[in-house]
Design goal:
The protein is mostly helical. The chain has a single domain, classed as Farnesyl Diphosphate Synthase. 63% of the residues lie in helices and 6% in strands. It has 16 helices and five strands. The chain has a three-stranded antiparallel sheet. The protein has a two-stranded antiparallel sheet with strand order 4-5. Strand 1 and strand 2 form a beta hairpin. The radius of gyration is 19 Å and the shape is globular. The two termini are 33 Å apart.
Length: 344
């Protein structure tokens, strides 16, 4: 299975054409077109990986596709690709690395939604995978998605063996007992008596997947340690911000038809909002956005792809929050209920 790549004037030029094993991505210099092209490339490639070597009509395959290809922002794979591009990476394997990150995210959502975990009925505006296919199929689909993610990385073309090894190791670290698994365990069984306890759980449940998205980008772009550290700090701050927005979404009274997921699940739960109150939570959200902007600037300098994307995710408020963070909850108040925030 060959990989062909042709480039004209680089990604910042008039036109880029890349073919990954038979499918193409075209993007003009316009940022919105570029983002749509990247998103389409990720979704086409995920569909390819989930159709390879298996029947498309069996229940397990259908559950995997429902978990991985349902409507979503594709925030993490797009973040991987944009950061890597800003770091100068032109590897045709980048889209596969991004797909591996998204498959892990999809698997984590399937498991998080299970009755023995968060017991969610709605995800991305659709019934959760266990509601559609049964708990047994949902568990197996999540395991299969994780396995596929590692297989994609292990076989990724155009990446030196040592770099592939680092990518696989980083993904394993993210999923395991020091990452997503520990975060979900703490969410279910850990003490959440203090703000620090809540922050630790949020870092493991949300921050680590944003962290691995930028870690993967830094690894494949072979960035230096300082850049990698700044990207990791950005992901940590952004993870806290996204978790806060998720908590604001869960405030009772929000319409699940708008948010795309169950609401009111955090009633009585020791979330940051329930612990410090709405005004302080808004102030902290603005502060996290300011930290994310600062760290992103330290990592990427004047390169703008990733910054534009992050600003778009937060309704364009990431930059304004940088100056308002110490004293202005208004910077975050506009999206406290987050009625237009795309579902995870």
């Amino acid at each position: 299975m060959g990989t062909q790549t042709r480039r004209y004037d680089g990604f910042d030029g008039i036109k880029t054409f890349e073919a990954f094993d038979g499918f193409a991505m075209e993007a003009r210099i316009d940022a919105a077109d570029e983002l749509r092209a990247m998103r389409d490339a990720v979704e086409e490639r995920i569909a390819y990986w989930l159709s390879e070597g298996g029947a498309r009509d069996d229940l397990l395959s259908a559950a995997m596709r429902a978990g991985a290809l349902s409507s979503g922002k594709r925030m993490r794979p797009l973040l991987t690709m944009l950061v890597a591009r800003d770091l100068g990476c032109v590897s045709p394997a980048l889209v596969d690395v991004a797909c591996a990150v998204e498959l892990v995210h999809a698997a984590s959502l399937i498991l998080d939604d299970m009755p023995c975990m968060d017991n969610a009925q709605l995800r991305r505006g659709q019934p959760t995978v266990h509601v559609q296919f049964g708990e047994d199929v949902a568990i197996l689909a999540a395991i299969a998605l994780l396995s596929r993610a590692f297989g994609i990385l292990a076989a990724a073309p155009d990446i030196p063996a040592a770099v592939r090894g680092r990518l696989v190791g980083k993904l394993s670290e993210t999923i395991g007992a020091q990452g997503l698994v520990k975060g979900q365990f703490l969410d279910l069984h850990g003490k959440r008596a203090t703000v620090d306890d809540i922050a630790t759980t949020n870092e493991l449940k949300t921050g680590v997947l944003l962290g691995v998205a930028v870690d993967m980008a830094a690894i494949i772009a072979q960035a230096d340690d300082d850049v990698a550290a700044s990207l990791r700090a950005f992901a940590l701050a952004a993870g806290h911000a996204f978790q806060l927005r998720d908590d604001f979404q869960d405030v009772p009274g929000n319409d699940s038809a708008v948010t795309g997921k169950d609401t009111g699940k955090d009633v009585g739960k020791a979330t940051l909002i329930n612990t410090v109150g709405l005004d302080e939570a808004r102030r902290r959200l603005a502060g996290h956005l300011a930290d994310a902007e600062r760290c992103l600037g330290a990592a990427l300098g004047s390169r703008q792809r990733t910054r534009r994307f992050v600003e778009g995710l937060f309704g364009g408020a990431a930059s304004s929050a940088a100056s308002a963070a110490p004293s202005a909850p208004a910077a975050a108040a506009a999206y406290a209920p987050a009625p237009s925030y795309a579902p995870n």
